[in-house]
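Appendix B, record 7
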Amino acid sequence: MKTRFSLGSVNGIEEFGRYRLSETFFVRDFLYSTIATHHGFRNLPDDPETFIEAGSKFCKTILEPLQKTFGRIVIRSAYRSPEVNDYGRVRYGTCAANEKNYAAHIWDYRTVDEGLLGASATIVIPAYLEHYEQTGEWKPLAWWLHDHVDYHEMCFFMQLCAFNIGWRDKPTRRIENWIDRKRLLTKPGMDNHSGLHHSNYAHVPMLSEQGLAVE
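Structure tokens (predicted):
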């Protein structure tokens, strides 16, 4: 496999980390892994070129517009190498099987069935935290994102209202959560999936008064 990057040395890894995926995001922003750091794994892609292709589209399509709209976005978790992801599945039960995470947290592998490109990350929008901490409401943000962002899938978590969000060829547009007992919020075919959902976030000024900034 030909690549412009050689990840067999510190200098090579540093060069890879400096690669600019979009206006404000660089490769290095997405390589930190708590599991890899604690257990001593290399959290680096097998295919740097596919990583960059997927990551650039993810950043330009989703992360940059969100950051321009709401201010700084915090990356909680992003890329996982197959080794790191599988260890997280076996040891901690916090990661899906590798093949299910291709074109999601494992950016440098395409989906097995259709060969689709994709990437995902777990992020926090600090500007929304005050409302969430006061009300516990995560759905207004979910519906705003559904109306404004070309996402593939999202999943919301209780701490910090962090959520997985991904970009992919042929996006599904499905939202789940680990906050309420009912995990599924919407998916194609459900009555609540199509159309706009302004009534679900009209009471939150930072959402109701905000359109999505574009590059």
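Remarks on this record: The helical segments are 10-17, 34-39, 48-70, 82-92, 98-101, 126-135, 139-148, 205-208. The two ends are 33 Å apart (CA to CA).
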